[in-house]
Amino acid sequence: MRTFLITAIALYSLLITGCKEQTDQQAAATAVQSIFPKGDLGPAENFTGKAWNYGLVPADSTYTTLVGNVYFEPGARSNWHIHPAGQILIITDGVGYHQIEGQPRQTIRKGDVVKCPPNVKHWHGASPDTGLQQMYLLPNTEKGIVQWMEPVTDEVYNNQ
Ligand code: MN
After folding, report:
1. Positive or negative CA dihedral for 92, 94, 95, 99?
2. Structure pTM?
3. Which residues contact 14 (CB under 8 A, 6 or more apart)?
4. How much distance in Å is there from the Cα of 22 to the middle of ligand 1?
5. Of 25, 53, 84, 94, which has fewest CB within 10 angstroms of its CB?
6. Torsional sign, CA 68, 73, 75, 79
7. Ligand 1 midpoint to CA 27 (Å)
8. Closest CA to 98 of 84, 117, 85
9. Could you tell me the distance, in angstroms and rounded to a whole number, from the CA of residue 19 to the centre of ligand 1?
10. Contact, 30 vs 130, CB < 8 A?
11. Where does the chain have alpha helices with state H?
């Protein structure tokens, strides 16, 4: 009986350890990798949740192109906005959404390249469970960079 109990406890311990390892692996699978430093927290008037911006190339008269990286924590997204000269996004990790007004919400993932034409109202951000790493490229900055609008409601964000 004693041997049986010890064996049972040993098997139970193995089972618990096995489950924990699996949980850790799942957590690692959804963890978002960063190439760049996290940067600065975006202002609450332009974002829902936490979005961190790190500048890579400042806009100047030679390149007239603004390049940077945003990390959206899970559930975080931009307000609706337009870019007077358009925007290109390069997704380097995670899962998120991009939506142009009047069009279906798109799911975006690592490796996706998303173009948003000039003066088109849109938003972008992370999925509820996984963050999003996006590089943004804003060309022709002499035409303007961004015009911020209203927050994205939970209904729009959740595609309801
Ligand atoms: Mn944008």
Report:
1. negative
2. 0.81
3. none
4. 37
5. 25
6. negative
7. 29
8. 117
9. 41
10. yes
11. 2-30, 154-157
Lookup result for tokens 């943004």: 136
Nearest to 95 by CA among 115, 120, 123, 71: 71
Q: How confident is the model at residue 3 (pLDDT cuts 50, 70, 90)?
A: low
Ligand 1 center–CA 26 separation, angstroms: 31
Rounded to the nearest 10°, the torsion over CA 130, 131, 133, 136 is 110
Amino acid at 76: A
The half-sphere exposure of 106 on its side-chain side, counting CA atoms within 13 A, is 18
What's the CA-to-centroid distance between 31 and ligand 1, angstroms? 24
- Closest C-alpha to 137, from 40, 36, 58: 58
81 Cα: distance to centroid of ligand 1 (angstroms): 6
- Tokens 């489950």 sit at which residue? 19
pLDDT tens digit string along 59-98? 999 999 999 999 999 999 999 999 999 999 999 999 999 9
